[in-house]
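Sequence in, structure out.
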Amino acid sequence: MTILAISSQVVAGHVGNSAAQFVLETLGQEVWAIPTVLLSHHPGHGTPAGRGTPATEIEALLENLWTGGWMDQVTAVMTGYFTSHDQIDVAAKTISRLKHATPDLPVLIDPILGDNGTVYVHESVPPALRDTLMPLATIATPNLFELTTLTGLPWPIDDKTGIDDAALSLKTAEVLVTSAPGTSPETIATLVYAQDEDMTFETQRTPSPPNGIGDVMAAAYLAIRLGGADPTPAATAASQIISELIETASRQGLAELPLVGAGHVIRKIADSP
């Protein structure tokens, strides 16, 4: 498998493609990563240095790959953070072109918009993601706030029926909603909607979760699905990977997920479905 991954990149730390690429490659996938922005580090550590990648530059990179015949090797696409609507337009055009040749192309859209009631992308990004990119997705992995932003639900929301209806309204074959309320204040839930079923996976809530959880969750789920697992065992394994990494990060007092030293754990859990 060769995955085209379009998302953010940091020099130090494990978020965006700097997290997803490691997980995908650890699980045996070839990754071609295109940065929508290059930052020194996650903004949660202080103001980073860096810049967004101009959409024209992203388009030039992709067009050169088309010209050289490289894009014929792409067997899946994963997108994450975007800085502008014109970046999204380029990504959508590329995905549409790939799907023209391969209609059943797996496309995971992680609609990174914000969290806990706060949007942290440019105002042009949410409508572009909703109207241009989401219709191309075969898998979507929004957190609960991103789901409400995409579907117009009020925030905050803890109505399971409303969440179900919103997730199904995306009309995406597989939807993973993260950061949903658990059955107790001590737990947090991931809701999975796929193959006319819905499933709930609960894990312990972490007071100060490390950065990169959503990126790793999306990448692990995609890699395990591409490996042949069905949605339920893939989501179960991805959740277990996240739990193990969070536990290690908490034990070591880390603000980033400890990916590099956990490759064997990621592979072991991923092989379990």
